[in-house]
Amino acid sequence: MPSTVSDTGATIGLVALARKQGERDVYSGKRTWVRFALGMQIDVTLDPTLPDSSWQVIMHNVSGGGIGFWSRREIPAGTLVHISDHSADQRLVWLPAHVIHCTVGLRGYLIGASFDNPASPDDPADAAASIAAQEDSGESSVPRSPRHIRALLMKCASASALACIVAAASVLITIHYVPNEIGWAAQSALATLAAAIVGALWGWMTTRGEVLFLRNFQAEIRRLALGKSDEGQLPEAPSKELAGIRRAFLDLGARWRKHQDDERAQRQKLEELTQMKSNILSVVSHEMRTPLTSILLYAQMLTEELSALSRDDQQNFLKIIADECTRLSHLVDDLLEVQRMESGRTNWHMEAQDLAEVVRGVTRVFEAMAAHKQTTLTVSCPEKLTPVVADAGRMSQVLGNLISNAIKYTPGGGRVEVIAEDRGNEILIRVADNGPGIPRDKWDQIFDRFSQLSDPDVAENSGVGLGLYIVRTIVVVHGGAVWVDSQIGAGSCFCICLPTGESHDQAAFDPEDTTNVGRVLVCDADPELTARMAQALRRERFDVRVAHCGRRLLTQLDHGDVEVVVTDLSMPDMGAAELLGALNSLADRKFRTIIHSYEGDGRELTRRGVDIYLKRPVSKDEMVQAVELAMKKRSAAGLTVLVVENAAINAARVNELLTEAGHTVVSAESMKEALTLARDYATDVIVISGESLGARWTELKGFGIGNGDTTRVMVLCDSVRKNERRLQDTHHGVSVVAYRKGKEEVVVDAIVASQHEIEAEISR
After folding, report:
1. Which terminal residue of the chain, N or C, has fewer Cβ atoms less than 10 Å from its own Cβ?
2. CA 550 to chain centre
3. Are 459 and 447 in contact, with CB atoms under 8 Å apart?
4. Cα–Cα distances in Å, from 214 out to 204, 217, 219, 247, 518?
């Protein structure tokens, strides 16, 4: 039968077991009780007299005064519980304890309880149990000092011993070889000088690493003060104390760079606002002057010559005044609409909508306008469409703007078609006309603020240049994409793609959140693909610009602070070689390049300055991952490290340490994925476990090592034996590192060594 004890014997036994099986808590010096983390199973019950009333918990820590454990059941504070070590026999001894706290954690409820019969550290029985447990576990009764302190003490002891030995040897040498006439004073001086020289040499050798680190640290501080923190890189620290300082400095540098990036983005935003104000003034002074002049002129004529004008002339003048007033009203409405959207004060009424009725209703409104211009207006829309989470009023505004533009820009006798398609996971709406068309280098520009076409044939229909900007803003807020496909003389087709209710993540885009994580330029000849890539990146808070030809791409790079360029190699106006040459020849180039194409070789492109090669087709997630990696690499001075995840590697810890050290990490879940990433990414070091390779060491050739590439492959093994050394000797660029879980710092140190090798090879 189980029994409950009230003396300290059982508590001492449990603590002794903890000392034998567990590890000393790192914060033990700050507590009254010395704690030992266990992670072993124990039994807990509320009533030890009831059979089968106990359940197993996982011990978190235990001391002479209390215990902590993870439990699947909640136990309120103040509850009396009984605890026993998990035993297979029936001789259970229950320790009473009162619950102090109960909080929800990752592994259930984290419960802390205080023993009703605590064991004092001063108890002789406790001391005897502690010594016995330490002897059983091979642990010394003297608390172990940290490793770096022991190493420092060993250095001091070695230096002192060496100095004493040299001093003694010097005395003996001077006694035997130095003439006695010199005297003991001179002999002692020579011995002291020799000991000082040896001590100084030994001190220089033992502190050389610290001195070099502090010099580099001082240089990095100066670079940071001058705003050049990315130019250098702080080497690994030779001791744990300096390693802590290094991590703090790297964190400070990262925070400083983020602050600089935020300031630059804010400054850029202010410049854009200033430019917008200038555009508004230009619009007010130019666009408003014409209608105001017409209104004033015809109003004066009506006032001064009303009696002399015929009734038809009077009606004509009044119609002109009304049209100009309507034009002014639309101009003011557009300006106010843009101001509300820019400031985040627009009210959005997002609900599940069937856009079929919206499409047909908006089309009916413009039938009279089309008939007046003798333009055929047709609509093709299913009876019902899959619901879309949308603001019906805003979508009516979008369609109205596109249909109105199509009718105005289409000559008399032309046609305008409105087509809605239900594709299940998205709704596609097209507004096509057979008007004059739009040049390819203007396809993206027409969606900018205050952008107008300069075609003289359509100049009379030009507006203020805000309509399509409002269209794009509304569509982006709805999580959709908008683009135009056009040919000169063959008309234009404006397309809107909206995700349906089942596939649209309403929380993915907050229109009032103006956070910008980076500026990306996407260039492709296919307008739909360009719009979809831009849509995926905008949902991740990237500021995205688009281009559809090489000339427009280079123009945008000249006039904007672009951080990442995503482009195809095949452009309508420029070949692959010409495009890459133009990108590489740009002065003061600060952007990273991602090639997204059907053609090209990944390794060859990386040698020509391309950072990432994505062979089509790729998913949205792959595109976003590549842009995020390029964005990180843009501001990092370290290496790009590909880590092949495996059960034998603590990948999370390795990634954390590498990131802290200033390196950019790419993760692969398999060898196949790693080979693809190594081919497409400009990778410096590849970390892979020997378990992942198994007997397939020949797969290392797939990483491109030994072909003039500077990529290094690091194979992690439990131990470096003859076979592993042979692998390292026969494969250039391969290094084998002895690694076990918990020793992830070894991997970082090896990567730092690889970095020095890469820099040396590049310099040669």
Report:
1. C
2. 29
3. no
4. 14, 5, 9, 14, 34
Contacts by 617-620, CB closer than 8 A, 24 or more apart: 620/532, 620/533, 620/536
734 membership: H or E segment, kind and range: strand 734-738
Pairing of strands 664-668, 80-85: unpaired
Q: Please state which of the ranges 84-88, 361-365, 516-520, 671-675 shows the lowest mean pLDDT.
A: 84-88
CA-nearest of 477, 614, 493, 612 to 535 is 477
Q: Give me the count of residues in the chain.
A: 764
* Preceding peptide of 617 cis, ω within 30°: yes
| Residue range 350-373, pLDDT digits in tens | 888 889 999 998 998 888 888 888
pLDDT in tens, 666-717: 888 777 788 777 777 777 888 888 776 655 556 666 676 555 566 788 888 8
CA 315 to chain centre: 64
Decide: 573 and 551 in contact? Cβ < 8 Å. yes
Distance (Å, whole) CA 118 – CA 63? 9
Amino acid occupying residue 524 = D
Kindly report the CA angle at 685 between 681 and 691, in degrees rounded to 5?
105
Yes or no: say if 443 and 494 are a contact pair by the CB < 8 Å rule: no
For the segment 739-759, the average pLDDT, to the nearest whole number, is 73
Task: Give the pair of three-digit tokens for residue 59.
Answer: 């011990």
Overall pTM surpassing 0.85 (yes/no): no
Q: Which two tokens stand for residue 35?
A: 């704690």
Strands 685-689 and 640-644: parallel
Burial 193-212, CB ≥16 within 10 A → b, else e: ebbeebbeebeeebeeeeee
Longest dimension (CA), the chain: 140
421: buried, middle or exposed (CB in 10 Å: 19+, 13-18, 0-12)? middle
Whole-number Å distance between alpha carbons of 652 and 671: 18
Q: How far apart are CA 397 and CA 394, in angstroms?
A: 5
Highest mean pLDDT among 7-21, 546-560, 620-634: 546-560
CA–CA gap between residue 79 and residue 113 (Å, rounded): 9
- Of the CA atoms within 13 Å of residue 328, those in its CB half-sphere come to 17
- A 10 A CB-CB count for 255 gives 10
> What pLDDT sits at residue 285?
67
Rounded CA Rg of the chain: 38
- Rounded CA-CA distance 440/391 in Å is 31
C-alpha count within 13 angstroms, C-beta hemisphere, residue 501: 13
3-state SS string for 420-479: EEECCCEEEEEEEECCCCCCHHHCCHHHCCCCCCCCHHHHHHCCCCCHHHHHHHHHHHCC
pLDDT for 213 equals 78
Q: For the chain, list the domains and their CATH numbers.
A: 3-137 (2.40.10.220), 289-342 (1.10.287.130), 350-506 (3.30.565.10), 514-634 (3.40.50.2300), 638-763 (3.40.50.2300)
The upper half-sphere exposure of residue 208, i.e. CA atoms within 13 Å in the direction of its Cβ, equals 6
